[in-house]
Design brief:
Layout: H1 3-20, H2 31-40, H3 49-72, E1 77-85, E2 91-100, E3 106-115, H4 122-135, E4 142-147, H5 151-160, E5 164-166, H6 168-181, H7 184-202, H8 204-216, H9 232-244, H10 246-254, H11 265-290, H12 299-313, H13 320-340, H14 344-352, H15 364-386, H16 399-416, H17 419-432, H18 442-448, H19 454-463, H20 471-483, H21 493-505
Parallel strand pairs: 1-4, 4-5
Antiparallel strand pairs: 1-2, 2-3
Helix pairs in contact: 3-21, 4-5, 6-11, 6-13, 7-8, 7-9, 8-10, 9-11, 11-12, 11-13, 12-13, 14-15, 14-19, 15-17, 15-19, 20-21
């Protein structure tokens, strides 16, 4: 590699370091970094901050072109949207795009993180989202928009006339939080637990005492976890850790100068049974948030499994508080599952996932409705395909030859154009096949059967790209929070968008 090529490669490596590790552009001017580079490569001259900014703009333009080309080749896309407020109180709107590429891989691309200074009305949100979709030329390809349950987000989607799905992580969060808040005994225990945790986290003496007791008891040294009001799973984590470390907490509080008392035996029994009831919901929340594969199709089956887990665990409940919590959750899960099993975007994706098909539904009537809907969608695909202009007869054919085969050609045409009958056969053949194991990738299955079920395959590309939650957007803002730190709170919106776009798409 000659000197010029070496210089270009090193410049790109520095730029990638800044992008991937969320470093400030000014790091190329920092004394410590310059000394490090000098030791590693004495002949290399670091680019200036201005040059890095120019390289960033160029790389952003190149990557933008690549991602646009890939997104525009997709048959259909789903998008997630979310709002975020930076440290300096500036609002941003992010859109992520989800699609299945030609290699049957589920892809996610960040479309942008744009400064959103307008008031957060449904009309403003709808206009802003439409502008971003138009910029990416995907307006007619969007099959579903996934957001949280904020009324303005839902109303904006209605204005855009796009199918909408509420983030299941947010739905579960509200479902469990409302159920927990309805149990006075549990609320009292949570308040008491928060006070205990806050004491051990705010007092150096208490923290060291707890660690000492844990070591003496031969237990790993673990800090207590506090509850975050907006995240129900933090309630689960707080109670779970406090329950696991109850002996160490009892001993520590007894030897510390505080009026706080540990949880009583009866309170510990309530916590133990409440954790048993809440454990499946915690597992569901973690699983959906970490999912990197097809996930929208998992929502309905997961609600069914949550109901089954509630029924199973009810046999082990003896405290009144845990029983009431169970009853609250079962009622809300039943109502939520019924609503979800009526949403076409979720029911069709469940049926088209060979891991679940009809087994994913709790309601047999809702399942039958979904199967009929799938047949209608499949018939529509067949109708569109057969309505495309077909090559006419060869001009070299004589009138005698045309008349000779005319009747047979008409009969064949009537057979091939019976879209309803063909769709019923194709759907029934697919549903009759044995389900694949849950650990297998449904897109691999469909990649191998695109010719066996060609019309359903077309629907797969439209419906299996829908994510279960808007977590992809939340991850974008988590990264934005790293980039816009206290030291970099004056970063302008355009540079922030470029940095996040490259960080998430490279």
């Amino acid at each position: 590699m000659n000197t010029a090529s070496r210089k270009i490669a090193l410049d790109q490596a520095v730029l990638n370091f800044i992008i991937k590790d969320c470093q400030p552009l000014s790091i190329v001017e920092s004394e410590g970094f310059r000394e490090l580079v000098q030791v590693l490569e004495p002949s290399y001259v670091l680019p200036t901050r201005k040059t890095i900014k120019e390289l960033l703009a160029k790389k952003h333009a190149e990557e933008l072109e690549r991602v646009k080309m890939e997104v525009q080749q997709a048959v259909a896309v789903s998008i997630t949207a979310d709002l975020w407020t930076s440290l300096n109180m500036e609002a941003y709107l992010a859109l992520t795009c989800h699609y299945i590429n030609e290699n049957m891989q589920l892809c996610t691309s960040v479309l942008g993180v744009k400064h959103f200074p307008q008031s957060h009305t449904a009309d403003n949100l709808a206009q802003f989202k439409k502008g971003m979709m138009d910029d990416w030329a995907i307006t007619n390809k969007v099959r579903c928009l996934v957001t949280d349950a904020a009324p303005n987000m839902i109303a904006a989607t209605r204005t855009l006339q796009i199918r909408h799905s509420v983030c299941i992580a947010h739905k579960l969060n509200l479902l469990v939080k409302k159920s927990c808040d309805q149990i006075p005994e549990l609320s009292s225990i949570r308040e008491k637990s928060r006070q205990i945790v806050s004491f051990f986290r705010s007092s150096t003496t208490a923290k060291e005492k707890l660690a000492q007791v844990q070591q003496q008891m031969g237990r790993p040294v673990l800090k207590l976890i506090n509850e975050v009001p907006t995240r129900w799973n933090s309630t689960y984590q707080m109670l779970s850790r406090l329950h696991d470390e109850k002996e160490a907490v009892w001993v520590s509080l007894a030897s510390l100068p505080t009026d706080l008392t540990p949880l009583t035996v009866d309170e510990c029994d309530i916590v133990r049974e409440a954790l048993l009831v809440l454990a499946p919901f915690h597992q569901a929340t973690v699983e959906l948030s970490e999912e990197r594969r097809v996930s929208g199709s998992k929502v309905i089956p997961m609600m069914k499994m949550l109901y089954c887990a509630l029924e199973r665990n009810s046999l082990h409940l003896h405290t009144q508080a845990a029983t009431h919590l169970h009853d609250q959750l079962r009622r809300r899960v039943t109502d939520t599952a019924s609503n979800l099993e009526s949403l076409s975007v979720l029911t069709l994706s469940t049926l088209l996932d060979p891991r679940f098909k009809t087994l994913g539904f709790r309601s047999s009537s809702k399942c039958s409705e979904a199967v009929n809907r799938l047949k209608v969608e499949c018939a529509a695909v067949i109708a569109r395909t057969t309505s495309e202009p077909q090559p006419g007869p060869s001009s070299e054919q004589s009138p005698v030859q045309e008349n000779l085969w005319h009747r047979l050609d008409e009969e064949v045409g009537r057979q091939t154009n019976n879209a309803t009958a063909d769709s019923i056969i194709e759907v029934q053949r697919y549903l009759a096949e044995r389900n694949i194991p849950r650990s297998e990738d449904p897109l691999t299955y469909w990649g191998n059967r695109r010719t066996s079920y060609p019309n359903l395959f077309h629907l797969v590309l439209q419906f299996l790209c829908t994510p279960a939650s808007s977590v992809p957007c939340e991850r974008v803002f988590s990264k934005a929070g790293e980039i816009v730190s206290k030291k970099r709170n004056r970063l302008n919106a355009k540079t922030l968008n470029k940095l996040i776009f490259l960080n998430k798409n490279l």
